[in-house]
Amino acid sequence: MKTIKRVLIVLILFTIISKKNVFALKSTLINIDFPEANQEVTDTVRILGWYMSKESDTAMKMYVDNQEVTDIPRYARNDVIQIVKGYGTRVENPNPGYDKTIDITNISYGNHVIKINVLNSQNEVIETATRAFKREAPKINIHLDEPNNNQRYVDSVRVLGWYMCEAKNTTMKMYLDDQEVT
């Protein structure tokens, strides 16, 4: 029985010491509010969140697919300052919030990654957060009303139909036997 008690005491002490060391090492907390994990977006992505740090004179860098994003607006987040404890105060974190909307029309459709780095005064990364999102292709619907299948024409053909597309400033081209019709 004494051996079991000693083992339990050792395990409890080890757990307490381990937890203290884990929490003592982390001085910065980053939160990405938007986009949500794996959210599908089309032409823009809004990156919104906050970070808190015990360290003064920190800086933030933002990346999309390892390409740096510049001119990131920072602002006060009283809600974060009041709720998040243990990561500094308003003195170290006067503007914990960030909010940037990025035009992503020049990146490919599919999966992409946002990365937020917080740097200390020596320009060393002290914390990193990532968030995946997906650039979705715009939905397109095309309907051909005329001509009907197997309909025969002699000198001309009437083409009638419509299309709808979520993308802005789209155009439609028509082809007959792989030749564009103007």
What does this molecule look like?
The chain has 2 helices and 13 strands. The chain is about 15% helix and about 45% strand. It has a 5-stranded mixed sheet with strand order 2-9-8-4-5, with no helix packed on it. The protein has helices at about 1-25, 80-85, and strands at about 30-35, 40, 45-55, 60-65, 65-70, 75, 95-105, 110-120, 125-135, 140-145, 160-165, 175, 180. By secondary structure, it is of the alpha+beta class. The chain starts with a helix and ends with a strand. The model is unreliable at about 5-25 (pLDDT under 50).
Can you tell me the overall shape? Answer: rod-shaped
The proportion of residues forming helix, as a percent range, comes to: 10-25%
Q: H/E order of the elements?
A: HEEEEEEHEEEEEEE
Reported for the largest beta sheet, the result is: 5 strands, mixed
Quaternary state of this entry equals single chain
Layout of helices and strands, plus pairs?
Elements: H1 2-25, E1 28-34, E2 39-41, E3 44-53, E4 59-64, E5 67-69, E6 74-75, H2 78-83, E7 97-103, E8 110-119, E9 125-135, E10 140-146, E11 160-165, E12 174-176, E13 179-181
